[in-house]
């Protein structure tokens, strides 16, 4: 395995899960990738998610984190769009 690639699990909820059609993804990313880049990659693949770009919160390993958090191999990433309840 190359040191320049990390592997992360991405858990998807709400709009992200609907757009991607799955509840989780395994991604290989360059070392140094920030958590916001995972969101941007999904938006690039599913442009209908762009409306959530500025509203999405990020979690890594069960902790809320800022968008600029650098990911490590083995991290579990959660993208949390706004959820309406009633």
Describe the structure.
- This protein is α+β, with helices and mostly antiparallel strands and 86 residues long.
- The chain has a single domain (5-80), classed as Roll (Ubiquitin-like (UB roll)), CATH 3.10.20.30.
- It contains two helices and five strands.
- The chain has helices at residues 14-20, 35-45; strands spanning 5-12, 24-30, 57-60, 63-65, 76-80.
- Strands 2-1-5-3-4 form a five-stranded mixed sheet.
- β3 (57-60) and β4 form a beta hairpin.
- The longest helix has 11 residues, at 35-45.
- It starts with a strand and ends in a 6-residue tail after the last strand.
Mean pLDDT: 93
Q: How many separate structural domains?
A: 1
State the low-pLDDT regions, or none: none
Could you describe the largest sheet, including whether it forms a barrel?
A: 5 strands, mixed
CATH topology: Ubiquitin-like (UB roll)
What is the CATH superfamily label? Answer: Beta-grasp domain
The SSE order reads: EHEHEEE
Strand order, largest beta sheet = 2-1-5-3-4
| Outline | globular
Number of strands: 5
Short summary:
The protein has a single domain, classed as Ubiquitin-like (UB roll) (Roll). The model has no long low-confidence stretch (mean pLDDT 93).
Mind sketching the topology for me?
Layout lengths: L4 E8 L1 H7 L3 E7 L4 H11 L11 E4 L2 E3 L10 E5 L6
Quickly list its features:
single chain; 86 residues; alpha+beta; 5-stranded mixed β-sheet; 2 helices; globular
């Amino acid at each position: 395995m190359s040191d320049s690639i990390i592997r992360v699990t991405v858990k998807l909820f709400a709009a992200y899960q609907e757009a991607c059609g799955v509840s989780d993804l395994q991604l290989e990313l360059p070392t140094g990738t920030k958590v916001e880049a995972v969101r941007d990659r999904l938006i690039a693949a599913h442009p209908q998610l762009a409306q959530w770009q500025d509203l999405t919160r990020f979690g890594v390993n069960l902790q809320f984190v800022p968008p600029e958090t650098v990911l490590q191999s083995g991290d579990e990433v959660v993208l949390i769009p706004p959820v309406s309840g009633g």
